Amino acid sequence: MATRDTDWDGVRLHVVTGKGGTGKTTVAGALALALAADGRRVLLMEVEGRQGIAQLFDVPPLPYAERRIAVGPGSGNRQGGDVFALVADPESALIEYLEMFYSLRHAGAALSRLGVMDFATTIAPGLRDVLLTGKAAEAVRRKESGRGRHYDAVVMDAPPTGRIGRFLNVTTEVSDLARVGPIRGHADTVQKVMRSPETVVHFVTVLEEMPVQETLDGIAELRELGTIRPGAIIVNMTRPLALPHDQLRAAAAGDLDQAQLALGLKAAGLDDSQTLAAGLAAELTEQARTALAQADQEQRLDTTGQPRYQLPWISGGIDLAGLYRLASALREQKAA
Amino acid sequence: MTGSQPPPLDVDRLISDRRTRVIVCCGSGGVGKTTIAAAIGLRAAERGRHVVVLTVDPARRLAQSMGLSSLDNTPRLVHGISTSGDAESAGSLHAMMLDMKRTFDEIVEAHADPDRAAQILANPFYQSLSSSFAGTQEYMAMEKLGQLRRAEEWDLIVVDTPPSRSALDFLDAPQRLGRFLDGKLLRLLTAPAKVGGRAYLRVLNAGFGVVTGMLTKILGTQVLRDVQTFVSALDTMFGGFRERADYTYQLLRAPGTSFLVVAAPEDDALREASYFVERLDTERMPLAGLVLNRVQRVPAAHLSPARSLAAAEVLQGSPADASSGMPDSLADGPARQLTIAALRLHADRMEQAAAQHRVSSGFTAAHPYVPVAEIPAQPEDVHDLDGLRLIGEAFAGEQPPAA
């Protein structure tokens, strides 16, 4: 059904990770919107229980249920598709799971009241992760008669980069859990989905030292595991400075020709061009230093060889319009 | 300028006051807490205090600049601080990186005899608890703070809290973990062997089979056995966990402790900061103020973004247009391009500054009495003492308010 080539044709599970403060949830939301273009159905999933999706899409807090929250951008005569959202928490996933395998709905609820579910997911962090990734795997595999897969794509707003390897690497996670039985079987299914070519992990970063370092570490970690594919690096909040290289260097060094700048300002009809030139030169110097530092960080990212997308910085914070802008930027770059 | 100005936060006064013994830097992840904590530590040391900075997850180059090449859980002397005056009044700076597993291991070793300690350390459940449990990092940061305080080797401890998404985790996680370790369910797992006559246990025992049956189904027998072994080995230390967490919690309330909430001027970070400020108030913990990090400064603030963009458009327009009065030398030259870039950048920065001002005014409207110190956005990552010093200078009382 693909009407245009993207870099991720055939991928159904997009796991989005990133260091805190890089805009991971925003990018996951924008990617879900972008994937929902042209009548496709997408699930955006949140696993850290902080209602980031609800805030992003400006809807009331979301329950543990799949709710339609937005319509993807249409194009030409095609309607935009639907974005559904799900806030998955381990306790609800565990109860659902017990119900599925043991028909234990009421017992599950009772144990939940006693704190047993919470306890179980606390003493076995691996269990918690398997339940959450399991929910994503289930959504990816779900079939619908006459349509094939229920969702064309699932986007998961995953834990931060520092925890991503552990979170996704279900095998080691549950190796110390039950060795037989339904959890084991469940884990094996999850593992199959995570390792399949249908799954990739995208890294959101900004061009600063720490987030870039975590991105490099995260990609290296996945490569070492050798089973889960790293996807794209999505550089968020970029603000390109349109200056030729020599001017950029001069600006960064504080060697800008202020007389020229003053001349330009005067030509543009601005008063007091001398003072203004000094102020603007100071601003340019700062921004040029940032741009050079960012160029260094981009070079570090080059070493990974992963595809890279740039998302613009949006002034005044992200609202729905901003989110659609990011979604179309992702589509233009063939991320979706 | 709209909204009222918050009172200025005088960090210099805070760090110069000898009664200040602990400064806790809180805030959500990604706001530059570690850098702020290090800058405060350095500034205090250069003003004569004997400081130790406890960091949790510093950037590699920043850590290296402070002489921390590895996570070794020991305070290291930072070289290169400048001290004025005589040796008597000279300060010093130590820094350390928290190793949560080692800190946990040390508690076990301190509280159990060698055999039992070895047994606990080798237990798979303990290993998971001490390395990957939610809350362990916060618990151990608190524990370390308590240890540093008791050591009495420093007269000021600056704590950088773990990078969690919620600043509240630092306050809640240790007690949550303490409660868990001390909790009924955990003890219940070891109960069958010694049920005895305690009434509540007898009652619980009726449902006990169901509970363990279910847990076995979910977790498998091995996990439960590991937990049981761990719990019985730890029995003598029980209560100890909660007590320790409680002790440190009290320390946070003691005179001499001050909280600084660090935030970037963005919605999410300031929302977290708000929660935290309200929580400190409820807990009667002393808030010194808000450090607003990465504030956009705009030197040419008198030129509005609209005029700036309009001027850029004039230049962008046909260079051959004689009526614009553009000198020939400018027509297609680099100066024109430079000026356009400068004007666009300026408009962009003005908008960002306005957006930042909007969100920070929102914070001040809700918390008018919380003093605020603004730290200008740095063009590059800070990774040496000079960079930290520069940030520290922004704490000097005489900083002008942002335009």
Description of the structure:
The complex is a heterodimer of chains A (336) and B (403). With 336 residues, chain A is an alpha/beta fold. Chain A folds into two domains: 13-239 and 313-329, P-loop containing nucleotide triphosphate hydrolases (Rossmann fold), CATH 3.40.50; 245-286, no CATH class. In chain A, 51% of the residues lie in helices and 16% in strands. Chain A contains 14 helices and ten strands. Chain A has helices at 24-35, 52-57, 90-102, 105-113, 116-123, 125-141, 161-168, 170-175, 182-195, 209-225, 245-253, 258-267, 273-302, 320-332, and strands spanning 13-18, 41-46, 67-71, 82-87, 143-144, 148-149, 153-157, 199-205, 229-238, 308-312. In chain A, strands 3-4-2-7-1-8-9-10 form an eight-stranded mixed β-sheet, with helices on both faces. In chain A, strands 5-6 form a two-stranded antiparallel sheet. In chain A, a hairpin with a 3-residue loop joins β5 and β6. Chain B has 403 residues and is α/β, with parallel strands linked by helices. Chain B folds into three domains: 11-174 and 239-299 and 358-393, Rossmann fold (3-Layer(aba) Sandwich), CATH 3.40.50; 183-237, no CATH class; 305-355, no CATH class. Chain B has 17 helices and eight strands. Chain B has helices spanning 11-16, 33-46, 60-65, 100-111, 114-122, 124-132, 136-151, 169-181, 184-188, 199-219, 221-234, 240-253, 267-282, 305-316, 328-331, 334-366, 385-393; strands at residues 22-26, 50-55, 76-77, 92-97, 156-160, 257-263, 287-295, 372-376. Chain B has an eight-stranded mixed β-sheet, with helices on both faces. Chain B starts with 10 loop residues before the first helix and ends in a 10-residue tail after the last helix. The model of chain B is unreliable at 193-197 and 399-403 (pLDDT under 50). At the A-B interface, α3, α5, α6, α10 and α12 of A face α6, α10, α11, α14 and α16 of B.
